Amino acid sequence: MRWLLVLGLLLAPAVQAATYHANAADYRGKLAALQPGDTLLLSPGTYLQGLPVHRLVGSSERPIQIIAADPQRPPLFLARRGQNTISIVDSAHVLIKGLTLDGRNLPVGAVKAEGHANWSHHITLEGLTIRGYGVHQQIVAISTKAPSWNWVVRGNTIIGAGTGMYFGNSDGSDPFVAGLIEHNLVINTRGYNLQIKHQQPRPAIEGMPRTASETIIRHNVFSKAEGSGHPEQARPNVLVGHWPLQGAGKDDRYLIYGNFFFQNPHEALFQGEGRFALYNNIFINDYGDAIHVQPHNDIPRELSIFYNTVLTPMTGIVVRRAEAEKREFAQPVIANLIFAKVPVVAEQATVNLSRPLVDAPKLLMAPFESLPQLDVSPQTEMHMRETFDEQQIPRVLDADLDFDGRLRWPQLVGAYGTDAAPAWPLRLERKPTRP
């Protein structure tokens, strides 16, 4: 009889994915019933009961999708006291797309992998508009407080949050691993636009990456032109902490490229330690320094900083080594274009093209204009060229492309690597404004 059972299973029809249409009155019941491959289309309207993504587990081939039914009229989720607006618990392979979240200045988060969860992985947040979550600096638009891996945070707009994105826990627990953060607009936060915390030894959780992986931060706008917190609570636009010092994750690294870092009245635009590559970015700060690499919870380790364009009246790039650290780490700073009072302070800086900030209008198109007219690409007749050993440029993802994604010409320094007209201004719906 066993063969009859096997034959019946083989001939049984495959479970079909379902598409559900829901509105503000009935979506909670349909949400809880979603199975792998299902899609929940949310009608326009005002949603008052949050979005609990609890124990929803799709698969790589059959993700669960929660999407605006009409992208031109996104569902509006209003915050409520005592509950994070999108709460994620023990869920995986879930796409959430095209929603608007309004915090109403309540002390709750917009999207959070909850601290009481065991894990979250393969969560995609795409095309969300998040506003009104800035009542104080500890309120975060997107955060993880459970071990999380393979998240994709793409094309979201975060306006005026206390902190834009905060991944991991303050004590280094609950790591954020192998993430992709791209094409987001994060502006006018009180604290960080983005912070990824340092990591303690990685917990052994089924499915969490154990071999070397990369977290990619690319093509984002990080601006603190307005709304920055009190100087005593100053934070960089972006801070990345160190990876585990031993065991799984010790060879992980950040790839940070193609981003636009803009304005910070009280701090540097970027701060990092551990293992990372920082390249093809634009840094503009009218107030202070641009790039700080320095000990924080550990020390700077293997890193590289190359092909960036930096404008600041203060210091462009600083790499501070730990004096007590005896081991040598490769930390090249090469092929950057820097307009600053002090261009580079780094032991392993080699060939960078440096000029006083006052010379920027002689070489760049419109470096002192307000957005969107601001343009730091080279003037047509200018070649931002220096002779350097291109073998020293790390072979990392998209290092052969410039800020606009075009193939780089040999020996050109800075974020722009060709003489072709740049794809400027930034093609984003909302742009930060120069004060």
Descriptive overview:
The chain contains 3 helices and 39 strands. It has 435 residues and is mostly beta strands. Residues 1-12 and 427-435 have low confidence and may be disordered.
Record the SSE blueprint.
Layout: H1 2-11, E1 19-22, H2 27-32, E2 39-42, E3 46-47, E4 51-54, E5 64-68, E6 76-78, E7 86-89, E8 91-97, E9 100-102, E10 111-113, E11 120-126, E12 129-131, E13 140-144, E14 148-149, E15 152-154, E16 157-159, E17 163-167, E18 176-177, E19 180-182, E20 185-187, E21 194-196, E22 214-218, E23 221-223, E24 238-240, E25 253-257, E26 260-262, E27 270-272, E28 274-279, E29 282-284, E30 291-293, E31 300-306, E32 309-311, E33 315-319, E34 333-334, E35 337-339, E36 342-345, E37 353-355, H3 360-363, E38 364-366, E39 375-378
Parallel strand pairs: 1-2, 2-5, 3-6, 4-7, 5-8, 6-9, 7-10, 8-11, 9-12, 10-13, 11-14, 11-15, 12-16, 13-17, 14-18, 15-19, 16-20, 17-21, 19-22, 20-23, 21-24, 22-25, 23-26, 24-27, 25-28, 26-29, 27-30, 28-31, 29-32, 30-33, 31-34, 32-35, 33-36, 35-37
Antiparallel strand pairs: 38-39
Key terms:
39 strands; 5% helix; Pectate Lyase C-like; single chain; disordered N terminus; mainly beta; 435 residues; 14-stranded parallel sheet; disordered C terminus; twelve-stranded parallel sheet
CATH architecture annotation: 3 Solenoid
Overall domain count:
1
Distance between the first and last residues' Cα: 79 Å
Please tally the helical runs, counting DSSP H or I stretches of 4 or more residues.
3
Largest sheet: 14 strands, parallel
Radius of gyration: 23 Å
User: What sort of overall outline do the alpha carbons produce when their principal axes are compared?
Assistant: globular
Number of strands: 39
> Ranges with pLDDT <50 over ≥5 residues?
1-12, 427-435
Helix content: under 10%
CATH topology heading: Pectate Lyase C-like
| Highest-level CATH class | Mainly Beta
Which structural category fits the helices and strands? mainly beta
Mean pLDDT: 92
